[in-house]
Design goal:
The chain is an alpha/beta fold. The protein has one domain: 3-Layer(aba) Sandwich (Rossmann fold). It has eleven helices and eight strands. Strands 1-2-4-3-5-6-7-8 form an eight-stranded mixed sheet, sandwiched between helices. The longest helix is centred in the middle third of the chain and has 17 residues.
């Protein structure tokens, strides 16, 4: 576990492995880096160096209750701060849902820091109805029923960690509602992803993993992104649970992608005299 300070705020991360192929993973919205506590060591065992970060307002990083501190560009700048802290010029950057969109934002704003992209469940144009139906009521609940959520947070925080899937769900409600509401407000007030005109300019190789039957992360968004990115490769998961219950196939895909992304460029053929 490590930490660094970004504009006066503490940000924590976990580090797995010591390989030269660096992968930075960012979690989903109101989740935390523990959602990768199985994937990180598995990828490290394949010779990769994996950093799983808690973005500001999430997990064990600082969680200020100030909506002005939360936006996709600000999250992308935190990843740049992490790379600077690690003294690394670039990395394969990616994650799930929020983390996927942060990676796209970074590729648009600081493309030289991105060696490749790992995009699981991006939230793009076709996700708007699901986002509105999910997060607008959640935000209202966090504001109007804050005392109830405060009690729920204290009670669930006392439950020991057990199965990773149960813990992912509990981590969602273990958080204090004030900062969680500020995160939602900050993101809903800004752009949630780069526009198509920006996305089609992303040249880095990208592994895109989409899930069927997920209204918040429609597979059509993953397919659209694969068509937009000139070097995008789409993989369809069997369900949102495949990587959580039977991760072998998708982990192999990601492992192979990391090897390709970090492979040295092919030498140009020698010209004949």
């Amino acid at each position: 576990m490590g930490e660094f300070h970004y504009e006066g705020h503490r940000i924590e991360y976990d580090l797995y492995g010591e390989g030269e192929r660096l992968l930075v993973l960012a979690h989903g919205l109101l989740m935390n880096r523990r959602m990768f506590e199985r994937l990180g060591p598995e990828l490290a065992g394949q010779g990769n160096r994996v950093v799983c970060v808690d973005l500001l307002g999430h997990g064990r990083s600082d969680r200020p209750e100030d909506l002005r501190l939360y936006s996709m560009p600000l999250f992308a700048r935190q990843v740049v701060g992490l790379l600077d802290h690690l003294e690394q010029p670039s990395a394969v950057v990616g994650g799930t849902s929020l983390g996927a969109n942060v990676a796209l934002e970074l590729a648009v704003r600081d493309p030289e820091r991105v060696r490749g992209l790992f995009i699981e469940m991006p939230v793009l144009d076709n996700a708007l109805p699901g986002v509105a139906a999910t997060f607008a009521p959640m935000l209202l609940g966090l504001r109007l029923a804050r005392p109830v959520f405060e009690v729920t947070s204290r009670l669930t925080s006392a439950i020991p960690r057990t199965h990773h899937l149960i813990d992912i769900g509990l981590d969602f409600v273990r958080q204090s509602p004030g900062p969680s509401g500020a995160v939602l407000e900050g993101l809903l007030l800004g752009e949630t992803a780069p526009h198509r005109e920006q996305r089609i300019q992303i040249e880095q190789p990208a592994l895109i993993v989409g899930h069927p039957r997920d209204p918040l992360h429609p597979f059509s968004d993953s397919g659209m992104l694969a068509e937009e990115l000139p070097n995008g490769h789409l993989v369809e998961a069997n369900s949102i649970l495949e990587w959580r219950l039977r991760p072998e196939r998708l982990t192999r895909e990601l492992t192979a992608f990391l090897q390709e992304a970090w492979a040295p460029p092919a030498s140009a053929p020698a010209s004949s005299a």
